[in-house]
Structure of XRE family transcriptional regulator:
Amino acid sequence: MAGRTQTELATSVGVTRAAVSAWITGRARPRDETIRKIAEALGTDLGTVRNRTTDTLVGRPVAWYHRPAPLDGGREFGNPAAFAFEADVSALAREATQNSLDERIVDGGRPVRVRYTLDELTGETLARFRRAIRWEELVPHYEAAASQDQKVGQAISAGLRDMNTRDRLVLLRVDDYNAHGLTGDDYEDGRFAAVMRRQLDSHKSGRHAGGSYGLGKATLWAASRLGLVLVNSTLHEPHEGRTEGRLIGRLDLPWREVDGKAWAGPAWFGRPDPHVEGADVARSWWADEGIVEQLRLTREGDEPGTSFLIVGAHDVASLIDATSSEGDGVADDDSVHRMHGRLVQALERNFWAAMTSGAGRRPLLEASVRTLRNGAEVIAEERVDPRASQPSRTRALQAFLDGTTVERLTEKGAGQVVMTTVPLSVPGREERRSGGEHRAVLLVTEAEDDDGVLNTLTTMRGNRMTVRMKPVPNLPIGTDPFQAVLLAGHAAGDGAPFADEAETFLRASEPPEHDKWGQTDELRTRYSPSAYRRIGSLVQETHKAVRELVAAPKEKRRTSAERIRKRLAVGGKRAVRPATVAGLPTLDELHAHIGDGGAWCITAEVKIPAGGDSWPLVPVAKLAVRSGPKPVLAWSELAAVHNCEVVDGVLHFTGGARRATFSGVTDVTTHPVKSTLSSLVVELRTGKGDK
């Protein structure tokens, strides 16, 4: 401070000595007007004042700084937030990409660009990387952690064993561009502190943000076998007068003892901060291009955003897939080939909507995956295309954005998209009786062959974040395959009524995984114990609307009934038909659902004309197919419910009855395909049924 004391500088600038102390220790930042006064008082320029903190750190060595264990004997054997998710790349892709979407810079309408890079290091390349991260300083801490018989200790032990015996380490880097970056002070409120210093701090910047728990970032460390993540951020707004090359590393280990001293969980890779008295604290530093390259954190250009490098990436779920994978020819459980494929699938499944464009606007998100080995390309960069992986849903959303939806599906194979709205009565908060009636947007279109599970409803909110995908129950028999999408809250568009209220309400109804809407502690606290019933009503109304939209026209229903009646009319039987019989019994109502074991479970009501009770009939179950004969399914159970009995698979009606009910369960061993991938047809026959 040019030989001045804090008190002298405070007097010159016109502030308190405490304020000057806060600037020096990084606990506060002076306003621009005050910075000009400081520059005048010190006889220097504005740039020097802005970079003062950085300059004082130049020359200090970058090293690892471990948090001492608390003196009260407390011990934490891992980060609880990391156990909220599966340690696999699918969960990582969902959470990390959602965070990037939430941090998108909306000005200019450009998408946030997210790229995942797998890089398998071996040999000398691995040795250079370990020198760059000062591996030898970490070895005693890793050995102490790995010696513990706790869950985290076992995982670290496996990661070290894999790296040492196979001379191999997998890095997974997540880059985002056109995002805010880790702005803010090292210690005070802001994006940097929320991600690198704190747990359960959700520092979301936009009202469209998906998360609210601050748990998603934990997947970064959970995906590392070594609990180690390095970061390089380019900031959207300057910090200490700079924007590019802000680096820091964070290590999450369990409590441990090294050389007789106890350490708590985390450690940071950074420069020592001399302004924090009484403690060894490392803070971020502004690195040059050489250091950034050694740490394998080089970014493309100066576009703002952040790169997270997960050291020792692994994928627990791929261990299961490994037993059924086909043809990749790779024996490794953590094969980068397999991880590449699972990353692409996770992005396709969770972010197809954010990657869909319409009405001349660009999408919200662009995503890609590439795989390297020692920096050389193994699998070329693969751009995730929602039109290839989710053709029907993408078509539905694009039609909504373009304003080309219709009121009814009138032509098969034409790719029509029907739109309607579904009410959500948002409960009030803080003694308000009602939060208003939101109108969620429901889209339905014909399903394509590549859409996966048919007849599924996909629900989403916020910046088109997929919350859940689930089949629609109790569909009419013979329903043509379809896909449905429900856009609620902000996803319903700027013109949707009470979108803010619905968004807040639905977000409060989600668990940390954000994969369903239901009862949560937050919902009970913010609203009322019965508020979740509003969600139940929304779901019921949505299912009802879907069934109405996909139902065949009435004219067609008559044709179907006539067809069934025609198939029941067997010529040989008519010769012995009683003179009093006016007609054959017919199926009037049929309710069906898929049971836990994958079997179709049905309850059918039969309408019996006068005199028709003398006809013995055989219920026949078939799978609906687009062409060719319908595969016949056997019954594992067939039972009479009302006004009938079942004898050797044949229905016999009670004399004089006009309606009868029976139930049945199909035999899953006779299903040629999974029930979730098919539709069911039930017919009544006068013979012994189809074989």
